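note to self — DONT lose this again. spent like an hour looking for the file last time. sequence + predicted structure for the chain T wanted, 245 res
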Amino acid sequence: MDEEVLAGGNSSTIVRVGDTVHRPAGLWTPAVHQLLTTLRAAGVTEVPEPFGLDEQGREVLSYLPGIVGNYPMPSWIWSPTILHEAGSLLRRVHGADAPLAHRAATWQLPAHEPIEVVCLNDVAPYNMVFQDGHITGLIDVDMASPGPRIWDLAYLAYRLVPLGEYTDHDVPGEDARPGRLDALIRSYGYDFDQAAVLRTAADRMENLAIFTDQRAADTGRNDFIEHAALYRRDRARLLEMSASL
């Protein structure tokens, strides 16, 4: 069957073949497939079903139909419904994958202490699938690794409240963001204060900047250099926000 290159692959080529998605595999793929299998068995069917490897050694996953939240973000991404569904879905993911967090496995990214759950490490609209204004899927979970719950929640907040540097006119204004952050924390259903989430988001930015610097060095792509600089500006901003609470 013909291969259709899918939009949104930031660092690799991802293709659709019929009702499946084929993407590069790595040493971490068995752990990721175990994660997906565990989530689906627990009722978290918003993630793809893994089907092993194809003849080219690529991983094969079920295709999740819908619209992916790629940039520039549509205005409906910022709806309270999606904010609530994102926090609730992340809590369900963590509830289902916690038994895997302390098992021996090879992950693409290092673990972060304290280990509580398997973090997806990249929960954001660009890795979500939407239909009719609702979240129906989570994709691209190959960056997963063990870590604390707040590590994932803080990054989701960074992308969906949002907490970073945005210029789009549809993005919620500065005055709306504390309320949206509180709503996201409540939808996750765990007792985190805003300052802790903001500090963790700042740590995430530094971690992501270092990771992106390495990607720039490996690929020679100037856009990665620009992204790393943005993450460091946002880190400073997040620390200022947390200190003001």
